# Entry
Amino acid sequence: ELKVEQNPLFLSMQEGKNYTIYCNYSTTSDRLYWYRQDPGKSLESLFVLLSNGAVKQEGRLMASLDTKARLSTLHITAAVHDLSATYFCAVQTTSGTYKYIFGTGTRLKVLA
Amino acid sequence: DTGVSQDPRHKITKRGQNVTFRCDPISEHNRLYWYRQTLGQGPEFLTYFQNEAQLEKSRLLSDRFSAERPKGSFSTLEIQRTEQGDSAMYLCASSAAPGRGEDYGYTFGSGTRLTVV
# Structure
């Protein structure tokens, strides 16, 4: 059964600092998605990573995928308060239902 | 097409009542998924439809839960005899059929937030 783990679960950081969120998963997949969720809201798509070595960047966020290590990272550069939210990674199974298995989420708080 | 629509956005119900949620997927998408997200947790898979066929149900989907997708279009999720533990955000997503090299990722709806009092 596919399991997805994120760490850290909680992250409090100062504005201007850099940090990385890690997403590890247990079985083979080359399809990984990152989402942002604000309190009480649905999921906002951030990145779609569809192959080994994929790297995507948008503003202060950069995501990468290493399928051999079964690891994805979400790197935050020079954090700003507006990035405060919960971030989820989701791994898609590659046969059958093609369902997503979500990580536990990383709750990010950026302090001014 | 306006994306995946869910109705209602919010529902407050008394314990023991039945509730039904509706999801209208993107019209070209033949795959439809329901997820449940409780406070502080990631979304958890509930069930999957391919066209009108319900092909997978999670063990989270107790006997009080039933989902349908008549004619392979919209879907409904019904919860009978609601309990306080059913309070959660219910998310619907749809996707196209997988093909080599294509992104057949989900499009999520805005969710239905259920509060059982």
In short: The mean pLDDT of chain A is 94.
